[in-house]
Amino acid sequence: MARPWHSLYPEGVPYEFELPNLSIYEILERSALDYPTRIAFIFGDEELTYAELKLSCDRFASALYKRGFRKGDRMAVMLPNSLEYIIAYFAIQRLGGTMVQTSVMYQASELTHLLRDSEPKWLICRQDQMTKLEQTGFIEQLMIITVNKVKECQSNFHRLIRETNIDLPPIVINPRVDVAILQYTGGTTGKPKGAMLTHFNLVSNAFHNQAFYAVQNNSEVIVGNSPLFHAAGLLMLNFATLVAATYLVVEKFNVATVFELIKKHSPTLFIGVPTMYINLLQSADLKENDLKCLKICTSGTAPMPVQVLEQFEKKSGAMILENYGMTEALVTHRNPFSHKRKIGSIGIPLPNMDCKIVDLETGTEEMPPGTSGELIMKGPQVMKGYWKNEEETKRTIRDGWLYTGDIGMMDKDGYFFIVGRKKDLIIASGYNIYPVEVEEVLYQHPVVMEACVFGVPDSYRGETVKAVIVPKHGTSVTSKEMISWCKERLATYKVPRFVEFRESLPKTKVGKILRHQLVEEERIKQGSQ
Predict the structure, then answer these.
(1) The whole model's pTM is what?
(2) 145-167, pLDDT tens digit by residue?
(3) Phi, psi for 452 (deg, rounded to 5)
(4) How far apart are CA 235 and CA 205, in angstroms?
(5) Which residue in 244, 346, 451, 511 could disulfide with 333, CB within 3.0 to 4.6 Å?
């Protein structure tokens, strides 16, 4: 069925194409065969070619197999961005296991929930995480493999890789059925849920990205900023492997480290979130030509302020392509790499995807272009379901359509825009206010570095608008000045009634501002008054 956005596809990109029925390990196997000497990953002073990476993965998989790891077993991996993470990931996929993504930032209570819910038999972590694990009470139930932070102190992880006798079973994986990853959601609406992502989900997304980026195999260098234990980072790992790119592994985003990598390796692709671009632009280390090597930059997880996008593109000469994705469906929309992009839009659906904007009440009536409603979608990237949670799966996936909970709008040309979350919508005196509208105006102020807008209770209006702002270093502004700024640019009912200034905002591991945490802090504060 023809859709409005199909006319916007880059030349040579089909609306639909037959996706190969490959496992995740098989995309590594293909790149290792075709480009054995290509540098696959660089981490500090360490490098691995594709042939060396496959050999390390096979050795580690063989060692796991000898110790009883079998297809369908679950292994929790709690490692920062590192070569060990990458080796473990592909080794688990080689054996048909399921990798349970585990944030290194989890504390004992969060770990307890994840381990109880996912029921892994195995766990890989750094030695310094053992204290937290002991507090969960699960340590006796797990086969634990440790990684030492200091390479000279060889851990049992590295000893396993050194086993040279590779003895592996045949690859018996059904990509459309077998769950490769349990990716836990952020838990903003309760306890985190484990999204079951199949090999087909993940490999399809890699092929879609290859088509939309129009990259050449064996030619790209990617800055890997996002945590690999987050879906955004994992997707770029798969994409990089598919196209035999060189992936610069960044353990934790740091402006100085990123600038050093850019100067040394001249990357062509930069994968980031708005806060990363803001920090790079604000850095005193930024020189005139530092960013000129970049060809494509992407931004996701939160709307990119227009001012930031324009400043970064002017400095780099690269295009920032905004995209959209979620744990349950990976990346589903991208702006095309051409003059057809629209700033502020999440772009258009990727091949093989169908999307609708439906009414917020019933979720059944498709809304016309220019009208907001809930974004729903179907396609090869949509998860299999939530692990051990049929009720929530049925609520989220209906008749094959994934209900995102995001309020969106499709314009007459077929571009999609996200205007807020259903739960973030502010209703003041009957008017709908989307936080992103107000934030966009705040970001236009020369003093504002970061901003977050949300609703607070109001006895008269039901709700009213509050803004929390982080000013740029060395600047100052008053609440009265910010409110006046908004009055000149927004309808009266959208203007913040309260403005708070902070030195920083709470964020997720990938830099997304945690609006719900600010809302909760406000609720507690209101309750104590």
Answers:
(1) 0.82
(2) 988 765 544 568 988 998 878 99
(3) -140, 135
(4) 7
(5) 346
